[in-house]
Design brief:
265 residues, alpha/beta, 6-stranded mixed sheet, 12 strands, binds 2'-monophosphoadenosine-5'-diphosphate
Length: 265
């Protein structure tokens, strides 16, 4: 039996166990997937004991995506460039890290629009925003980063040849929320809804409830409004394929998490 799971704190809210268990079951793979809710003081111990716990792979979520790197035998180019790991896998008895968060953000957008040359307003400059930048650069989008701390927006923009901005007056076609605003407080949005006027696609990385950001985009009649469920799924497909070597059963995984998520009206 193979052992997988998600390392996070808190981890209770995560839909990853439901999503991956459904995939393993549907392909008759003998594997478990658990939520490992590990407190900050216990992370070192947890990571140093992956072998004795017989862990085969992990997803990593907040707040450990950077911290786990020091305990791994290596990380790939993408994880290095983004500076964070969200997927750990075992190869020849060693543990390695990669990052599929960028796929989680880019793939749902790419399915709907060619990102090349598109004006994107990216909200946030933390871990999720860094992953988004990696993918948006690959696709040739024109990105403007707006963040509460302007200096962090400038540092991130410089790394990828993007622009840091303090306003959204440049009429973006795509708006991506990579801040944590709306995660705890459902009434808070990181941006004034006036920004949505001519926007074609909106993506929020938050899932689990309909955020103010998503509600505002719907009210403004943005033609395509995507929630964090899409992000969860697309990074999940990639993790599953890395671990199992099999094509992810997308329909099944999607149905497993959709059941638990409020529909966007
Ligand atoms: P993650 O890994 O999920 O991206 P993070 O690295 O802690 O988490 O980043 C959180 C992002 O949300 C940051 O861009 C943060 O802005 P700062 O760089 O100014 O800290 C943003 N953020 C968090 N709380 C916010 C708030 N109340 N208003 C605006 N932005 C906020």
């Amino acid at each position: 039996m193979k052992k997988f799971g998600i390392l996070a704190h808190p981890a209770k809210h995560s839909l990853s166990p439901k999503m991956h268990r459904s995939a393993f079951k549907s392909l008759n793979i003998d594997a478990t997937y658990d939520a490992f809710d590990v407190k900050p003081n216990d992370v070192e111990d947890f990571m140093k004991n992956l072998h004795s716990k017989r862990i085969d792979g992990l997803n990593v979520s907040m707040p450990y995506k950077e911290e786990v790197i020091q305990y791994l035998d290596g990380i790939d180019f993408v994880a290095k460039k983004i500076g964070a790991v969200n997927c750990i896998y075992k190869k020849s008895g060693k543990y390695y890290g990669t990052n599929y968060d960028w796929k989680g953000i880019i793939e749902p957008l790419k399915k709907r629009i060619n990102l090349k040359g598109r004006k994107v307003l990216l909200l946030g400059a933390g871990g999720a925003a860094k992953a988004a930048c990696y993918g948006l650069k690959k696709e040739g989008a024109k990105v403007f980063i707006l963040n509460r701390t302007f200096e962090s927006a400038k540092v991130l923009a410089r790394k990828y040849g993007f622009k840091a901005t303090e306003t959204a007056e440049f009429m973006p076609e795509i708006v991506i929320n990579c801040t944590s605003v709306g995660f705890d407080n459902e009434d808070e949005s990181p941006i004034n809804p006036a920004v949505f006027k001519d926007v074609k696609i909106v993506l929020d990385i938050i899932y689990g409830h309909k955020t103010r950001f998503v509600k505002d985009a719907k009210t403004a009649c943005v033609p395509c409004v995507l929630t964090g469920i899409e992000v969860l799924l697309h990074q999940g497909y990639a993790s599953f394929e890395k671990w199992s070597g099999k094509k992810a059963p997308r329909e099944i995984m999607s149905r497993a998490v959709a059941k638990r998520t409020p529909r966007i009206k």
